[in-house]
Amino acid sequence: MDVAGRSAVVTGAAGGIGAAVAEELLLRGAGVTLTDLQAERLTETAERLGADHPGRVSAVPADASRTEDLRTVLSEASRAHGPVDLFVANAGVPGTRELGASDAEWRQALDVNLLAHVRAATLLVPEWLERGSGHFASTASAAGLLTQIGSATYSVSKHAAVAFAEWLAVTYGTRGIGVSCLCPMGVDTDMLNHGRQSEDALERTMARAVTDAGDVLSPAEVARLLVDAVEQDRFLVLPHPQVAEMVRRKAADHDRWIAGMQRYADSLADDRP
Question: Which residues cross the membrane (predicted)?
């Protein structure tokens, strides 16, 4: 999909990867609707981007995991820039403690990291099938292909996000609908930096598990790779190429891979409670 002239929605767009994706889409000529729960920060980001791209930026504060909020965002995006051609499901929440997560924390992780994608696709795909085109991009994580040391909620919800994106591609990929799934390791975002600076030992361990595994990339670098994938109609986006080799090793010998991850987790034990 050539994004120039297209109408795009990006969730979780007040900062981090979402704001960077919005900016990259604008640089390539799209009209972009930003949405996020952080209304004040969202407005600041939209004003900053709008100054460089007048008339092509709109912002709608909303909860990306709520169907009615999504309806409002899609309606406003269509009014501002035309029927939505590209949806970037980027909003996410970080992981919580090992097996100490409450039911509410599990529900939040699954609602935001998975079901927000399902609900958006449910609203968009029927219209895209009628039009014969559309593209759904989701931000998952390398944790969705491998795992996340320290957080079951993050690992499980991101695995599910990857699985849903795969299902979308398999089911609708021959009917004009493109799907891309972003699976980075460390990206220089507030979420990662919060873990790095946390007084909580397990949060620091989770952050170290990410930063020790590879380079920490800028959101702009990751955004360029994602939008490239959208334009080239590619599914899997791996900003850290070593993840592909890790996945191959996992598939080749699952027991050996688990043993290696156990050793790696133990090597981080100094920071654990």
Answer: none
